[in-house]
Every structure is written in structure tokens, then in C-alpha cells.
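Quick question about two entries, pasted in order.
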Amino acid sequence: MARHTGKKRVKDSVAGYKLPKYSVLMSVYDQELPENLNQSLESMLKQTYPPSDFVLVCDGKLTNELDVIVKSFQNEYKKIFHIVRIDENVGAGKAVNKGIKACRCEYIVRMDSDDVSKPDRCMKEMLLFAVMPELDIVGSFVEEFDDFTDKTISLKKVPLVQKDILSYSKRRNPFNRQTVAFRKSKAMEVGGYSDLKLCEDYEFAVRMLANGAVGQNIPEVLVRYRVSESTPEIRRSWRLTKGFIAVRWKLFMEGYIGFRDFFPPCFLQLMLFVLPMRFTRWFYRKFLRDTKITPPTADNV
């Protein structure tokens, strides 16, 4: 397992702005690969502006290999590393809710157990909160990379400012879930994540926005998202299709979206399920991803 590299850390103030302290919140279950969890934990604990609190939710009993990694990090970061264990797997939404309650800081940075954050991710997100204290939820672009070769495959962009975020949220998640950071108090106010088994991150983002949360995305890649050979199959699976339609039906019944925003995305998801795999690959490359390797900046968004 990798250990501290001695990389220089930034102070708790940047450009005259005092950076708020933050908690990192991650959940893991027994299907995670140990090497992926290790890399993900390293990427968050070695941030240039490090966390003051780290909450790891173990969603059900972990394998021995995963437990070894968890205990190793707990021993190395005794002052900030806290483990919340759940006896049985309850799903991402319920697991994250337990983690939110356990977080000690007002600002919470979410992280998946198999992705990799850039070293300055948290510094940039906390600086945005410091510069714009009215914000409740922030995120960034992500870079998808091949799990086997480590090569960048594509970029996933999201809208940047509140007006565009609200409009985009009618059709899709306006935040890359791997990059989200939010206020604990606002998340608790809206009831946290739902018990949905899939797409709970999208439903959470919409509920935050519907209850007055102000959001913004940073036009930079701050997280690398791991893509494997099974990813296209997951994207077109019946399980994900049902989950996607269920969330959109919920938003439709609550009045957040109308029929024009409900039907087309659901129809398209059904087409991805029915049509051959090559169509799913083509569609994501053509319409939902930027396959240019050069990372986007504020000048070329």
C-alpha cells in the first residue's frame, strides 16, 4: 500500500480566503477491489489541503482483504479516520445517510471507493465555498479512464452556473456524483439521500435544488472516474433502466418535471437497453462525453 509521499500541503487560506474545514465521506461494500479502495483512499488523504475528518461507511461485512486496507488507514490516520459499520448491506443511499450524520464538519466531500481525486480537488472546492459562501453544493468535470491501461478515454462535462444547472437537472444529473461537495446542514434539511437503490445521487441533487440549494460546477477535471469493460453493459442494463425511470417518475409525480422532460429521457434509456451494445458505446461517445483528451478549462468550455 502506498504511503505519504511528502507532497507539499497548502495552508488553510488561499488568496486571502480562509478555507473551511471539511469531512470526506465514502462508502464501501464487499464487491470493491482492494487495490481500487486503496488508491481512492490515498487520493483523498493526500490532498494538498487535507481533510479534518474522514468517515468511511462499511456497507455490510467486508472481505478480509478490504478490512486489512481499512484498518491500515485507520491506524495511520487515527485522529481523523472514523469507521461506521453496518451489519448488512443496505445500499448507497442509506449508507451515505449514516455517514452524513457521522461527519463532524459542515462541508462534506463525497467520494466513490474506486475513483481517484486530483491532489488539489478539495482545495479548489473549499476555495469556491469560501469565495461564494451562498453555495450549498459544488462539483466539477470528470475524466473517465480505462481501468486496465490507465489511459484517459473521455471527459464528462456538466453545466457551470445555477441557471444552467437548474435547467439541466430537468433531464439529467447536473453534478458528476464523484465530484460533489455540499453543506451538511442543507443535506440534513432536505432529508439526506433517499432509499432508492439506483440514481439516488441524481434524486438527492434535484431535491437539494428544489429546496433552494445554490450550486456551481468548476470547469476543471478534479476527479478521475474508473471505467471497465463492464461499464457499457451496466449503463444499458435493465436494473439501471428501471432505476432511472423510477427516479424520473418520482420527479414527474412531485411536479419537478413535466411530461416533455419525463418521456424523452426514459424512452432513450429504454432504447439503450433494447438496442445492441455498439449503439450504447456510440451514443455515449457522441452525445454524453467529450472524447478529446485535452482537459477542458474555463477558456474552452
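Here is the second entry:
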Amino acid sequence: METNSTEYRLEGDGTDIRALPKVSLHDHLDGGLRPQTIIELGDALGLAVPSSDAEALGDWFETQSNSGSLVEYLKTFDLTTAVMQTREGLTRVAREFVQDLGADGVVYGEIRWAPEQHLTAGLSLDEAVEAVQEGLEQGADDVRHLGGRIRTGQLITAMRHADRGLEIAELAVRHRDRGVVGFDIAGAEAGFPASKHRTAFDFLASKFLPVTVHAGEADGIESIKGAIVDGRALRLGHGVRLAEDLAIERQDDENTYVSLGQVAQWVRDREIALELSPSSNLQTGAIEAWGDELVDHPFDLLYQLGFRVTVNVDNRLQSATSLTRELALLSDAFGYDLEDLLTFQLNAASAAFLPLDDREELAEQIEDGFDRA
């Protein structure tokens, strides 16, 4: 299990990657619990947990998640959501989530989660959102008391296989001035296109609430097209299979010549951000068309072609990772330097669901932090 005590330094200049200011756009609340918290909350609920040892439980999550299948990967969330059904549980998890982000150098984080999955103990949708917001604010206070600085926003998620899209969209809009910054759909992608929630997306567009859509992870170009056309997505959750819309025409000793299909061309030209999650993409088989090692990930190809790539964790628990670790892994695989890491963070700042002035301020904060590195 990844811990914040692990040190990652950039090869070449030795920069401490954890100390760099970072932006996290794709980070699931129910995928970022501390194993010890699961044990304690599970015990209070009389819930059976695979292990009463935190380290062993963390290892269990990682092993279960290394299936090569998104469907199997998602089954691990049955346990995490089970301990997040009460106000106390949600608030604690959210508070610790922000503490862990702050310890990892994150200065702005968008936390996505599906309130409809947290109602079995009697909470209403609104009460669940309020409980999470309380925890996020407590966590931000904790970070400040330690001398740090962090801002967060909720991404309210609807489950794409369910039929509550409009209801969850209305929930997100109700809380837009109380911590919610955007909307998402998640869950099993293949067979559940964005068009299924078109009414919700129409409503969100009428209310000018920004949208990101999970697409291009367990399904291909048509899913990405649906996210853009039906969902009006400003960002793509993962979007890694956009690389299927690229064709390598020829290569020589110095260059690779690539042509872009219509969907890829649109995504690049409109600077629609890709919320890429390297370790998770390996675990779920999202990049199996290109290989099974990080160096096979099309991240670098997309980056070199000018797509707005961002680096994310997806689920820190299931991938035993952190944003620092993901950046270190990419740097090792593709030889990225400090300037590349800065580009990824500025891409994320530009794509954040914040007002323009706030995004510009965030970018300045990141540049200042990198200058001091």
C-alpha cells in the first residue's frame, strides 16, 4: 500500500516530486479510503472485512484490482461503499481524503463520488452531499493548520447503469454554491452510453454546470463521441482509448507521422482534457491494445501530439498509489523532466471546473511552486 512516507525524486535533478504543487482532477472518494479506516468503520457496523490488519487489507485491494477487467475492478467498491453509509462515515472518509491529498502536495482537488450509492442507512441525497462537504472542509482546515493550502470541489456522479441521471443532475445543481463544481457519470461503460442520460445533460447545460464523462476506458471511440455529443463533456474521464482514433502513417529515425480521426481531431483542437490514470489503466485493461506495461501506455503519444493530458490516480486504494507516484512512474517510463511535470499540472489547472480568475491564480501558484523546486 502506497504511503506518504515514500520518497520519489525526479531523475536527473533530484527534485522531490511530492513537494511540487499538484492538481488532481480524477480521484474517487470511495477509491481513496485508508485501510485502517475501513477496518474501524467496518467493525462499528459489524461488517466482515478481509483482514483486520491495515497493510494486509491494502494488499488485498491491490491484488483484487489487478484483474485486467473494469467490471472485476469495480467489485472492490462493494466494501468501500459499505462503510460509507452514515453521516459520520462519509464525513470521516472525506476529511481523511483531503488530509492525504494535502500530504501529497495537492493544492486543488476535485473529488468525485456517487451519492446514490450511499443511502442504505437512511441518508437522503442532500444529507449525503452535506456530510461529504463537511468532511472536505474539515480536511482543508487540517491542511491549513499544518501550514499547507488546499482547495477542493465535489464532482457529483450518476451511475450510468442506473436511471437516476436527471435526479442526480438536479442534486448537483442544488449544491453548486455549497461545494459542488461539476457532474460526472461513472460505472460500467460498455453498453451504457452517455445518451442514456441525455435528459440530465440537457438540464445541466441549461444550468451551465460543467460536465466530465467517464469514456474511453472500457469502451472505444463511439463512447468518447457520445460523451462529447450527448454529454457535452468538457473533459474525458480517462479517454485513453482515444488513441484508437490515431493512425501511424510512417516513421523515420527522428519522427513519427500520425493522422487523427475526426473525434481525436475535435478533442485535440478544442483542448478537451484527458483525465489519464496510468496505473489504473493498466489494472483495468484499458490499454491492452497497446501492451501491458506502463511504457506501452499511449500517454506519451497523446502528449507529444499536443493533447491536453493530465495525470490522475483514479483510485488510490485500489492502485496503491498517489499522484506523486503516478508522476514518478511516468517520468521513469518516458524520461520526463520538471518542465514536463509542470505542463501536466498547468493542463490540469486550465481544465479545472473553476472560474477563469481562480484557474489563473491556481496556475500562478503552481508555477511559483515549481520555480522554488
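Reply: The chain has a mean pLDDT of 95. The chain has one domain: 17-371. Hope that helps.
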